[in-house]
Amino acid sequence: MENFDVIVVGGGPAGLSAALSAAKAGMKTVVIERGDYPGTKNVMGGVLYTKATEAVVPDFWQSAPLERPVIEQRYGFLSGDETILAGYRDPVWAQAPYNAHTVLRVKFDRWLAQQAEKAGVMIITETVVEDLLYKGDNVVGVRTGRAEGDLGAKVVILAEGVNAFIAKKAGLAPQMRPDTVAVAVKEIIQLPQEKLEDRFCLEPGQGATIELFGDSTQGMMGTAFIYTNKDSLSIGVGALLEPLIRTKWTPNDLLEALKAKPYVKRLIQGGETKEYLAHLIPEGGYNAMPKLHRQGVLVVGDTAMLVNGLNREGSNLAMTSGKMAGEVAAQCIQSGDLSDQGMSLYEQRMRDSFVVKDLYKFRRLGRFFETHPHFLKVYPEIAANAMHLYFTADETSKKERQKQIMKMVFEKRAKGGLVSDVFGAWRAIL
Ligand code: FAD
């Protein structure tokens, strides 16, 4: 049996970041990936954040296959055929060190794997890890689906993404329930560069993102997104499994309904669908996070439920957790302390980082939207009606208009409800 210092299960951003940092610390490291190459199985919207990425590969923007630097972020609500939008554009984000880029994971993950290989990581593809190997209670390696496929290791890092089969077997399972997992579908729609830049008012090479709530998910807890790539748009929608099951909407029907909305239709008009992808997103947040370590094992990225859905962040949490896990694995191997206690250094570092702090901050959010569904349905409707009334110029005086708006608001949501909603939202978000 071949032996390594560190075995990483899964070649996504979390696993490859873990492998890179372990190898940089001098560890003999291998990544085992079930796909033909890293990236083939992976799906993201996908906005890649600079800070977390450059911590793993400094100056990555000089060689990574990036689509466009994001200079504008728009947020909006759809209510029926109406659209309410707000956004922020900052041309500074078009230059190094940037804030974020759009990427296509099939290209980006493959490139990241090449950086890991340059740092000395061995990458074994087309191989599924089936279980951990134990000596007594101690984890001593992994069993793969290949003949004579056992590999030994001092530390195993579980970066297998949302399904977390091995983590579940190891008793490090995140709480996967219909209310902690979202299903997302996405299309890549090809469009000529100039057309794309015209439609989004962008200078050549610049990019924009749009996040849409409300009727973009038929009022379900979730989001729709449209991101500009070099010569295509990534358009998708994701919603929690629980309301999807309850309402019998399929993710594909949600996407088709989104594409038919007047605002969206115009953006994708004339484009040709090149790819269709689907994936789960772990949305349970802080309350569904598993324990992040045990003797000889660390859990990173989606396997550990590290996704901040509100801020559309997952890849950066994955990379940050991966980097820390690789560093802690090396530290524990060097000190010879692979006990559960020794490995808990990783969880401590994670709790001190923005990753767990952010998840903790928004720990009430999922439950809040569950108990206040009108935030995603009634309030967008109220806002759209109010804007319609306010911006329609006729012979009604503005004072009368304001009265009409207030009447409409209280008809749709009683005063008491409004006050408790504001208080609840304050507690969940601020
Ligand atoms: P993954 O990327 O899922 O990688 C896991 C890897 O493990 C895969 O390569 C898989 O093939 C491999 N694997 C699994 N099991 C085994 C096994 N047993 N043996 C061997 N290999 C195995 N995040 C953002 O930051 N920005 C966004 O815009 C964004 N948009 C998103 C849109 C969608 C539709 C989705 C689904 C997610 C989005 N996310 C976004 C979240 C982000 O994609 C994830 O948080 C991130 O990919 C997690 O990385 P990971 O390495 O933990 O898992």
TrEMBL record:
This is Protein FixC. Keywords: FAD, Flavoprotein, Oxidoreductase. Its EC number is 1.-.-.-. The keyword Phosphoprotein does not apply. InterPro entries: FAD/NAD-bd_sf, FixC-like, FixC-like_C. It is an enzyme of class 1 (oxidoreductase). SUPFAM superfamilies: FAD-linked reductases, C-terminal domain, FAD/NAD(P)-binding domain. PANTHER family: ELECTRON TRANSFER FLAVOPROTEIN-QUINONE OXIDOREDUCTASE YDIS-RELATED. Pfam families: ETF-QO_FixC_C, FAD_oxidored. Residues 367-429 form the FixC-like C-terminal domain. The keyword Protein transport does not apply. Its cofactor is FAD. GO terms for molecular function: oxidoreductase activity. Transmembrane segments: none annotated. Belongs to the ETF-QO/FixC family.
